[in-house]
């Protein structure tokens, strides 16, 4: 009897080839593309990374947060302090800012984890508001009106846009690859077991508290990275822009539309959100109302999101995390 463990499919292998082609193509965009394209791709990357981290936290970890903008904003302000006040290179500061946000997430988790369910979701939003109000009362970083990142003034616009774009592309690749490899590991299986039944997972010897802390910190690091990237490209930062609840609202929209608990979900959702934002954002309140109606419609008609519906109909999986046992007699 021949026993094999299958961890990839024809679709996933084809997706890998297409992804490599896309990476090569995308990496050359600054050599021939327009400046506006680079800025849009950086913004898209920030929304995508933020949504991927929310999906990791809620879709796989079962921790539904509406306050992840706390770490997004902290990433932006950490960049400001490191680049403008400490005098570090602004692009190096992006990485350091994300690491500092991860450190801040450890004591914050001690507060957040004292809450469960809906209280956890509301509590994370309150934490984000505390950070926003605190930053708004610090004159050194611009107070409530915000400030510009002056460390970028000595760098040419073309250089700033190119480096920011390549960093954003590298972060997207690292985000997808890192989440995928983590979910295929034993720790990833443990995380999904905690999501499905925390008590049962603990009874099987899984260190629930430690695993939740790791995921919370990793999600905070990713959100901080997205925040630092966004504001190094945007140049100006303010508390309302950095800690706005819209960041988490849009991330939830992206994940719900694409399919929660799937790597493909945020990818599909981010593309749809970017297209809607590009063509309908000028409609203001009507645009936001339309996003809400679309989210409700997808929730009612496609309970597993658009990719979940496609997967249910076709069995197509681009990022397989399960293990299939093939037995030949």
Automatic annotation (TrEMBL):
GO terms for cellular component: plasma membrane. It is found in: Cell membrane. GO terms for molecular function: branched-chain amino acid transmembrane transporter activity. It comes from the Bacteria. The chain crosses the membrane at residues 12-32, 44-63, 69-87, 94-113, 163-183, 213-232, 244-263, 283-302. It is a multi-pass membrane protein. Its main location: membrane. Pfam families: BPD_transp_2. Keywords: Cell membrane, Membrane, Transmembrane, Transmembrane helix. This is Branched-chain amino acid ABC transporter permease. The lineage of its organism: Bacteria, Pseudomonadati, Pseudomonadota, Betaproteobacteria, Burkholderiales.
